């Protein structure tokens, strides 16, 4: 999902808006990687957080990630990745060792 919050930046300073890619990925079948987003979202950083209610570890990676390799997050753990250049969120995939585990993500729009 993409949220578009609008916030006042200060008294008399006007308004600004931005688009933030924020969502949840559910791995319904362990061992079957799921792409984080299907359409492009350019980001300069992204945070992934494994849900505390997950039954096992989840794995973050590219299209070769599996339920046994990738960056491992235990339930409740998170990682923030910053990039020197803009990266498309479509490059990221999630897999899990247990069915129906979830990962929340929040990107910093480029």
Molecular structure report:
With 110 residues, this protein is mainly beta. The protein is built from no helices and eleven strands. The protein has a five-stranded antiparallel beta sheet with strand order 1-4-11-6-9, with no helix packed on it. It has a four-stranded antiparallel beta sheet with strand order 5-10-7-8, with no helix packed on it. A hairpin with a 6-residue loop joins strand 2 and strand 3 (15-17). The protein is globular and about 35 Å long.
Write the layout of secondary structure elements.
Elements: E1 2-3, E2 6-8, E3 15-17, E4 20-27, E5 34-35, E6 42-50, E7 58-61, E8 71-73, E9 78-88, E10 93-96, E11 101-109
Antiparallel strand pairs: 1-4, 2-3, 4-11, 5-10, 6-9, 6-11, 7-8, 7-10
Q: What is the mean predicted local confidence, pLDDT?
A: 85
Query: What is the count of β-strands?
Result: 11
**Shape verdict:** globular
Order of helices and strands: EEEEEEEEEEE
Unreliably modeled segments = 1-17
Strand arrangement, major sheet: 1-4-11-6-9
Q: Between the first and last Cα atoms, what is the distance in angstroms?
A: 16 Å
Major sheet, described briefly? 5 strands, antiparallel
- Discrete helix count: 0
């Amino acid at each position: 999902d993409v949220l578009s919050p609008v916030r006042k930046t200060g008294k008399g300073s006007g308004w600004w808006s931005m688009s933030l890619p924020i969502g949840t990925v559910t791995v319904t079948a362990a061992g079957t990687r799921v792409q984080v987003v299907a359409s492009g979202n350019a980001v300069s950083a992204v945070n992934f957080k494994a849900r505390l209610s997950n039954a096992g570890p989840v794995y973050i990676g590219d299209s070769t990630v599996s339920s046994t390799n990738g960056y491992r997050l235990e339930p409740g753990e998170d990682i923030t990745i910053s990039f020197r250049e803009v990266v498309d969120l479509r490059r990221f995939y999630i897999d899990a060792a247990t069915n129906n585990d979830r990962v929340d993500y929040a990107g910093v729009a480029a």
